[in-house]
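Need the bound structure for adenosine-5'-diphosphate, inputs here:
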Amino acid sequence: MFYREAGDFNTSYKQDNQTFPIKFDRWRYYAVLAVAFGVVPFFINDYWANAVFVPFLIYTIAAIGLNILTGYCGQLSLGTGGFMAVGAYAVYKLMTAFPDVSIVIHVILAGGITAAVGVLFGLPSLRIKGFYLAVATLAAQFFLVWLFNRVPWFYNYSASGQISAPERTVVGVAVTGANTEAWAKYMISLVFVVACAWLARNLTRGTIGRKWMAIRDMDIAAEIIGVNPLTAKLSAFAVSSFFVGISGALFFSVYLGAVEVGEAFGIQKSFLVLFMIIIGGLGSIFGSFAGAAFLVLLPVLLKNTLVGGFGWATDLAAHFELVIVGGLIISFLIMEPHGLAQLWRVAKEKLRLWPFPH
Amino acid sequence: MKDTNESRVTEDGRTIGGILMEMRNITLRFGGVVAIKDISFDIREGEIRAIIGPNGAGKSSMLNVISGFYHPQEGDVFFRGEKRPAMKPYQVANMGIARTFQNIALFEGMSVLDNIMTGRLTHMKSGMLAQAIWWGKAEREEIENRELVERVIDFLEIQAIRKTPVGRLPYGLKKRVELGRALASEPKLLLLDEPMAGMNVEEKEDMSRFILDVNDEFGTTIALIEHDMGVVMDLSDRVVVMDYGKKIGDGTPEEVRNNQDVIDAYLGVAHD
Ligand SMILES: Nc1ncnc2c1ncn2[C@@H]1O[C@H](COP(=O)(O)OP(=O)(O)O)[C@@H](O)[C@H]1O
Ligand SMILES: [Mg+2]
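Answer from helper R.:
Posting the output first, comments after.
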């Protein structure tokens, strides 16, 4: 009854093309933005920032990136962790080499460098598909981690082999380094996630997005309507890696502060982000948010209830988490390949007709 | 049916121009199987050209040669009098040749509207950066092309299913959407591989009407493969008959119908 498009008439194709064609959706979206920018920063503390908000926002960027490649263009990648590492090491090298340049520019450049690396590792996709491509990206994952471990130039010859982010500021406020406040970490992550989501949304609803989806749905038919598979696939690798690189750069510089590559960007990370888009929804920007939120919140929730509430042992709770995630992945793959985003859509559809389902 | 390049006007007032596309001595082999054996024929501007023949005759293979999926071992393809180099399918599409497939090849995960919008891709030139910020050219281009696509949707009378995911549509409508996607590209040459296969009488009539209207209103040249002899006789200006990879007849529907080779090889056993 409350959720209606009655009285909402789209009188031009421009209106019909909007991201949120129903007014109510648009308001809710503005409300979320208003709370995210205007309310949360004033209440956020270290615990909420580090346990929930900052990882949620940064993983969302990675999930958007992988979703473009896998969800929109149909190219399965297990190299997300490796590409996040490229972003992290790129931003580290830039931060230390050009300390006077803004960190924001460094993060964007790190995305650009990762895009170039992504295109390089995307080249095999022109010849191989599906499972074999996944194996090729897996090779990229291991190669990149190995590279950053073995070549001291990448970690500036530090004795520990780690990289750690020096302090950098945006308009006078520290956003990296030990003195960064919770709200500043949150804000810079939020700004990047909103910008990335906006860019991704524009790309996926336009010409290039249709090319990607055409390749995903049927590559033979895509060719017949004039899509060059070479440029379509490589552009998906480039754009995807750009976002994943930004995510890796922020993950290192803003969130963790110091990184050992195998630990932070190992194969587990690739799977984590892949699970996010499967649970959240393949081929959906909103699903990238939903999946990231879900997999960031789940361990926090379980820890608080099982360990805090019922007094379970920590490792038992951790195992229980694996069981839940595994079960969810399987059920989503079998029952709802479009993930939480689709469940949400179906719920809205029902609500729109309620209480007169016919 | 001489090899002149002059145009003529048909009984129903359509103009048929010079030779648009010519296949010269095409031979296509798959290992030991000879799918097409030394076939030559041409397609004139503005005409509806039918290719008929029993199953396995090599008709689809011929369309695949034209659209760049198969590359013949011998023979050449001429487009507007010029020999066409070996091309990839997307390059052929960019020359203004669109097609539909015998087994529907739509993008199942996308809506009807998006599927037909993909037909406009060869006309949309805005860069990736402009699209990313959805500014200026990108948005303008999207809206202009959307208007054209809406005209195709109106033409095919599928307004009501505009936003439906293609995967949910019945067979007959999918065929129509696939035609829509091809039409949206405003092709110079439209290739239709069995556009009416598996349809009921009413759907066939609709489809015939669309094909005639496309040809008549937009002057689009059409080459189609069809099994239903009645439909072929009604629609086409000229017919190529294939059997076991060979051309056994070529001419107006009348001529073909009275050709003894064709009667022996095909008409007697048709109407499956
Ligand atoms: N890709 C292919 N590989 C091997 N053989 C093929 C291929 N495509 C077609 N053929 C063979 O070529 C012959 C003609 O097939 P086709 O062109 O599909 O006939 P039609 O469309 O007239 O029914 C058949 O014998 C078929 O098996
Ligand atoms: Mg066929």
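Comments: Residues B 30, 33, 35, 53, 55-61 surround adenosine-5'-diphosphate (ligand 1) (CB under 6 Å). The radius of gyration of chain A is 21 Å.
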